[in-house]
Amino acid sequence: MQDDKLRLIEAVLFAAEEPLTAAEVQRHAGLAESVLPHLTVLADQYAGRGIELVARGGRWHFQTAADLAHILRREREVARKLSRAAVETLAIIAYHEPVSRAEIEAIRGSQVARGTIDVLMEAGWVRPAGRRETPGRPLTYATTADFLTHFGLETRRDLPGVDDLRAAGLLEPVDMALEAALLSPDEAGEEACEGAEDGAGEDAESAD
Fold first, then answer.
1. What is the C-alpha to C-alpha distance for residues 167 and 162, in angstroms, rounded to an integer?
2. Higher pLDDT, 137 or 69
3. Higher pLDDT residue, 208 or 159?
4. What average pLDDT does the segment 81-95 reach?
5. Rounded distance, CA 103 to CA 98, Å?
6. Which CATH number fits domain 2-65: 3.40.50.720, 1.10.10.10, 1.20.58.100, 3.30.200.20?
7. Which residues contact 127 (CB under 8 A, 6 or more apart)?
8. Who's near 154: CB < 8 A, 6+ residues apart?
9. Is the pTM of this model over 0.70?
10. Cβ atoms within 10 Å, residue 13
11. In the predicted model, is pLDDT for residue 19 greater than 50?
12. DSSP letter at 80?
């Protein structure tokens, strides 16, 4: 009976068009008890094989083993790439969510174009996260489960830190916008002020 349940859950996940939560797997399989223990067993059974069962953002799906992905990857033309502003905005949302447009602009130090967040929402990586209980009740934004799935993250705790990004060469030369995205708005503001003071000092020396 145990094997029959595992096979049923395996079939549900295989046939699914998108990742499923444990509750969705349970409903599709028509089981009364929680399927989490069975999902864990299946994940262990598939560990180390060409296909793995993984959980991303609380949703389960089969994927190609990470160490084989580069062999199967195909080059394809991307009709629409994310702009630099969109990448920076996505990074800020991921590290500071829930965050409002004004807070995003404060961290970036520049305005966010009207369509930038729309593009991220169309990609399925960003969603509205409710309104902040402050004057004006600004709308806030957060990342989605699809964001975690696309970037191979189980939770937001798996996001790399500044040191990790620099060690990987992603901040060489230092990308100030992305590095600022990892700072709190107050810290980012302080660094901006320090930079402005240093610049003023250099200008004064040049004038002398």
1. 9
2. 137
3. 159
4. 85
5. 10
6. 1.10.10.10
7. 121, 141, 142, 143, 144
8. 54, 55, 56, 57, 148
9. no
10. 20
11. yes
12. S
